[in-house]
């Protein structure tokens, strides 16, 4: 309520004060000058904006303890543009809504507005460990022993013993020398290319790489090449061009492409890298922990373990699903990232409970490959039954199973129909996927049973017949 100092840049201001003061103050203040005033209660202030020096008059009304700022002319123009874009999104049928879960992440979840649990077939919880009792208990214990958070970046006072232990487990799981933790894999991807590559270097990126890879590459000053999706002839052509123009070359690819469920031809990529003296970077977010015979990812799937130079991945999907990402590779690389990677240097450390949960998940994976094998078995069964029913399933033999529908509005309506059948899936459309390639993305988890998969396929058939997708 009470003001004891006023700062108004370069403009006279007229204040209407409370009745108790019985006076009107007029103050002419120079830039960044603060004038001491006797205490008074404000009814309103009228002043020219300090930010937009020739802008419209800005009025602030003070009521109780809350100030409400009227819309400026600049914001009004922006708001009109935003509303126009939102209207276009709604008209195209691509407006995204958020269903609210009222339960833990699991095979069965409770959705706000529904009176019964529904099968969850759209989570990245590939191993079903997000709500595993041992994982939850590890988080609770860390909360007691190491606290809720560290209020610091790693190099100041934000590194605990459990952070170093988790990095060592990650390196051991991938059979690498070292690893470095980030707040997310988006940060890990944002923080590596700028450190590793200079204007003398070249980076070659698959055209369908994840947005975080694309954004990370934009931040670096290297020469940039984009090769056609999984097209090794195009990649080789661009490598030939880059050889004479660059000091070092880096091929960047997703291991598994999240919207299509297809796998990068990693053996061929590594062969080309050897031929043209290039490094290989792979984002394994949709592979770590569950793809390959023991869950070691795309390298293991192709039987080429150790040939990839840099692996980035996430703790926010199969590895407990809480948060976090990492880079793993040679020790010199990790050491340089600790010195120069901006997302690492300027982001708070991962909270201790998150670290402990991920560490427990890695203990489970290092002990047995059973969960990864279970996911593979369920995936094979789902794909076989769906294709037999007449659906078009994109991708390779991977737990991401896109059910192709084409039309954006159909995909949204189809997802609603599935929810009515007790199955929670999401329709994906432009701009997440290309126009005309809308789909329902199904994701299989080790938390599902074979009965869950059969129930899901039966629901797809029921809804598919309703919309004329299958006979």
DSSP helix count?
16
Strand content range: 15-25%
What is the CATH class of the largest domain? Alpha Beta
Domain count, please report it: 3
CATH-defined superfamily of the largest domain: Type I PLP-dependent aspartate aminotransferase-like (Major domain)
Helix content: 25-40%
Distance between the termini: 70 Å
Number of strands: 19
Major sheet summary line: 7 strands, mixed
The CATH topology annotation of the largest domain reads as Aspartate Aminotransferase, domain 2
Overall CATH architecture of the largest domain: 3-Layer(aba) Sandwich
Apparent shape: globular
Radius of gyration over all CA atoms, rounded:
27 Å
Strand order of the largest sheet: 9-15-14-13-12-10-11
Q: Based on helices, strands and strand pairing, what is the structural class?
A: alpha/beta
Could you list the spans in which at least 5 consecutive residues all have pLDDT below 50? Answer: 1-68
The oligomerization state is: single chain
**What's the overall average pLDDT, rounded?**
88
Enzyme class: transferase
GO cellular component, one term: mitochondrion
Family: Belongs to the class-II pyridoxal-phosphate-dependent aminotransferase family.
EC number: 2.3.1.29
């Amino acid at each position: 309520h009470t003001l004891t100092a006023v700062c108004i840049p370069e403009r006279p201001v007229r204040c209407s004060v409370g009745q108790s003061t019985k006076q009107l103050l007029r103050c002419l203040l120079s830039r960044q000058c603060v004038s001491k005033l006797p205490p008074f209660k404000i009814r309103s202030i009228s002043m020219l904006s300090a930010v937009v020096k020739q802008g419209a008059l800005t009025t602030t009304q003070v009521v109780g303890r809350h100030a409400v700022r009227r819309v400026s002319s600049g914001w009004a123009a922006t708001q009109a543009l935003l509303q126009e874009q939102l209207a276009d999104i709604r008209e195209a049928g691509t407006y995204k809504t958020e269903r609210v879960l009222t339960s833990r992440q699991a095979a069965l979840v409770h959705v706000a507005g529904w009176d019964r649990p529904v099968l969850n077939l759209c989570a990245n919880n590939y191993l079903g460990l997000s709500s595993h009792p041992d994982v939850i208990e590890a988080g609770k214990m860390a909360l007691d022993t190491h606290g809720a958070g560290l209020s610091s970046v790693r190099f100041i006072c934000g590194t605990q013993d459990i952070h170093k232990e988790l990095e060592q487990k990650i390196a051991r799981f991938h059979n690498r020398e070292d690893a470095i933790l980030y707040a997310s894999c988006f940060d890990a991807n944002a923080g590596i290319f700028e450190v590793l590559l200079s204007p003398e270097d070249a980076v070659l990126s698959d055209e369908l790489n994840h947005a975080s890879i694309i954004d990370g590459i934009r931040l670096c000053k290297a020469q940039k090449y984009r090769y056609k999706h999984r097209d090794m002839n195009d990649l080789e052509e661009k490598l030939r061009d880059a050889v004479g123009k660059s000091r070092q070359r880096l091929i960047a690819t997703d291991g598994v492409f999240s919207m299509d469920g297809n796998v990068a031809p990693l053996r061929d990529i590594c062969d080309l890298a050897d031929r043209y003296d290039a490094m290989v970077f792979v984002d394994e977010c949709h592979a770590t922990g569950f793809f390959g015979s023991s869950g070691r990812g795309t390298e293991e799937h192709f039987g080429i373990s150790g040939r990839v130079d840099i692996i980035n991945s996430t703790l926010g999907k199969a590895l407990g699903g809480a948060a976090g990402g990492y880079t793993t590779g040679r020790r010199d690389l990790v050491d340089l990232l600790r010195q120069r990677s901006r997302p690492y240097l300027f982001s708070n450390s991962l909270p201790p409970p998150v670290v402990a949960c991920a560490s427990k998940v890695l203990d489970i994976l290092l002990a047995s490959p059973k969960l990864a094998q279970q996911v593979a078995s369920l995936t094979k069964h789902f794909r076989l039954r769906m294709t037999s029913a007449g659906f078009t399933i994109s991708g390779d033999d991977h737990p991401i199973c896109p059910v192709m529908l084409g039309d954006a509005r159909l995909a949204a309506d189809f997802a609603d129909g599935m929810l009515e059948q007790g199955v929670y899936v999401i329709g994906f459309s432009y701009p997440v996927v290309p126009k005309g390639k809308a789909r329902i993305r199904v994701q299989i988890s080790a938390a599902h049973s074979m009965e869950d998969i059969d129930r899901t396929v039966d629901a797809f058939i029921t809804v598919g017949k309703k919309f004329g997708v299958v006979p």
